[in-house]
Amino acid sequence: MNKTIPNIVITPNNHTNQNKKFPVLYLLHGAGGDYAGWASYVPEVKAYADKFNMIIVCPDGGSTSWYFDSPIDSKMKYETYVSKELVSAIDKKYPTIPENKGRAITGLSMGGHGALYLAFKHQNVWGAAGSMSGGVDIRPFPNGWDISQRLGTYAENKQNWEDNTVMNMVHLLNGNLEIIIDCGYDDFFFEVNRRLHEKLVLRNIPHDYIERPGGHNYEYWANSLKYQLVFFDDFFRRK
User: Fold this and answer.
1) What is the pLDDT of residues 89-109, one digit of tens each?
2) Cα gap 25→126, rounded to integer Å
3) What sign results for the dihedral spanned by CA atoms 122, 126, 128, 133?
């Protein structure tokens, strides 16, 4: 995209041990947010890198990129940025496990959609993926969060919306990607999350799915992250 993009990288205290390689969790922000959101609103994330002995990367996905490579705006290519350029840069600079068994991705809201979107499309890059309060079906929200600026209006560009919503990407899964999805009862994305869960069950795609009280806010996401970190830590240890 010919621009400099900031990211936060949180490393475990022992990351300079030359013989040690670490798994990496990519943690995506939501619409209107930026790379600093997680560290600002959930400062505990800094300690989680030590607790779980993993590198945590908080990318900047633009305020409302939805982590697409936009088919209508050549300056918005955040799928390529996160899944190729950033992953490559992190693997070169830090002592990572440079395989999908050593990478996971999750995020909140727009970032929940983005994490599943990127992982479903790039299972060679990520071995596990999560979503917290994710906008996992964008079609019911044709006027929301600048999606129409990335894909065109739903009325005139229906196929772009059909092709780029996570709900329609389940066919890409072969059962190897480990998935965790959660959403609060009071969240405006609750129904689309439940529908994605039901679709995964129908297709016999293994996944963890959690419904619990809560709305679309950092109080919910701070709690959610604790559960998802245990899930990803278990994945990394088994691999």
Assistant:
1) 999 999 999 999 999 999 999
2) 9
3) negative
